[in-house]
Amino acid sequence: MTENAVTESSEDASLPARLERAGVVVGATLLLSLPMGVVGSHLLDAGQPPWIAGVLVFAPGFVVGVLASTERIPVSYGQIWSFSLTSWFVTLLLLGATGSNQLTADRTVVLGAWLTGLLVGAVVAGRKWLCDRLL
Fold first, then answer.
1. What is the torsional sign of CA 10, 75, 35, 109?
2. How does DSSP assign the chain, residue by residue?
3. Cα-to-chain-centroid distance, residue 91
4. Contact yes or no for 83/120 (Cβ under 8 A)
5. 49: how many CB neighbours lie within 10 A of its CB?
6. How much is the pTM?
7. How far is residue 33 from each of residues 28, 73, 81, 85, 131, measured CA to CA in Å?
8. How many angstroms separate the CA atoms of 134 and 20, rounded?
9. Which of 27, 119, 17, 110 has the alpha carbon at shortest distance from 65?
10. CB atoms inside a 10 Å sphere around CB 28
11. I need a surface site. Which of 16, 40, 77, 120 has the fewest CB within 10 A?
12. Rounded CA Rg of the chain
């Protein structure tokens, strides 16, 4: 084992590195719950327990946070912020423009606004990636 490998493994196990990874996971979980929460009420029937809605809303962010903190996907924490906030805002803006309330609107209107918001969020979050590839 080389000295470089020992240094890298001890840096990965350090408290600040572990806290940073935990912060990315928690932050991504909370941030990605914003756009997921818009459609959460439409994904469930009235008879299902409420914890299922929590899993549907928080699980995608947790998975993305774990993958991003372990560098298994090429996504930065800034891109998670951009995607989450942009897609949430665009979805709510589209629902407001159509005069729909996210809780009482038709399921297809909410899902259409949500998918459009996700698409715009992905474009905004990937703009650096797009610029690097196009220019």
1. negative
2. --HHHHHHHHHHTSHHHHHHHHHHHHHHHHHHHHHHHHHHTTSS-TTS-HHHHHHHHHHHHHHHHHHHHTTSSS--HHHHHHHHHHHHHHHHHHHHHTT--TTTS-HHHHHHHHHHHHHHHHHHHTHHHHHHHH-
3. 14
4. no
5. 8
6. 0.79
7. 8, 19, 11, 10, 28
8. 32
9. 27
10. 26
11. 16
12. 18
Distance CA 79, CA 127 (A): 9
Alpha-carbon distances, residue 131 vs 26, 80, 120, 124 (angstroms): 29, 18, 16, 11
Q: Which two tokens stand for residue 87?
A: 């897609």
Residue type, 2: T
Model pLDDT for residues 73-105, shown as the tens digit of each residue: 988 888 899 999 999 999 999 988 888 776 666
